[in-house]
Amino acid sequence: MDTRDAIQEARTRGVDLVEIAPNAQPPVCKLIDYGKFLYEQKKKAHEAKKHQVTVSVKEIKFRPGTDDHDYGYRMERARDWLQEGDKVRAAIAFRGREMTHRELGAKILKRLTADLVEFGDVEVSPKMEGYQMFTIFTPKKVAKPETKKAAPKKEPAATAPEKKKAPKTDAVKEEVVVVEKAEAKAEDEIF
């Protein structure tokens, strides 16, 4: 269709002539309401952004002399963050003479790695950077649950085979008799 005819057709319909594929031979155009088109594009982009997962890096800090209770609290925070899908950066800050005992920091990070093995994987193994030793954990990928398979249909009650009750054994019968006798004796004593 000629360009002038296409423009005239768009005006008579009250819509816009929009070039879709300018590099095609011949170029491809559409007759659409351009304002509505932009609105729908914006709405789709907003929906896509809403379902987008953002991963942030949370940090917990330790010292070489961190006590067990403080360690436990920080480990639980890290576990919660990993379960929420965030990355966790565990850092140990050394000051002054503490730098000579880096093995204490490595011991804490090794313990933390062992405690968080179920919830996250080590992305960056423990390493020194200036006066800090750190490691980074990423959350474990959660396997998608399998879809439920259709349950096998049960047979109607009329055609289902009847279940037979298991006969009581002699030992069970004897216990029942003994209990009944004991209850009767207790009643006699009460009255």
The tally of helices reads 5
> What distance separates the N and C termini?
112 Å
Low-confidence stretches: none
Query: What structural class should be given to the helix and strand makeup?
Result: alpha+beta
**Nearest-angstrom radius of gyration?**
37 Å
Please write the string of helix (H) and strand (E) elements. Answer: HEEHEHEHEEH
Which fold name corresponds to the CATH topology of the domain at 57-139?
Answer: Translation Initiation Factor IF3
Strand content: 15-25%
User: Can you summarize the main beta sheet?
Assistant: 4 strands, mixed
CATH superfamily of the domain at 57-139: Translation initiation factor 3 (IF-3), C-terminal domain
Question: Which short descriptors sum up this protein?
Answer:
alpha+beta; 22% strand; two-stranded antiparallel sheet; Translation Initiation Factor IF3; 191 residues; 4-stranded mixed beta sheet; rod-shaped; Ubiquitin-like (UB roll)
Question: Would you mind describing this structure in some detail?
Answer:
Among the domains are: 3-50, Ubiquitin-like (UB roll); 57-139, Translation Initiation Factor IF3. Helix content is 42%, strand content 22%. It contains five helices and six strands. It has a four-stranded mixed sheet, with helices on one face. Strands 1-2 form a two-stranded antiparallel ribbon.
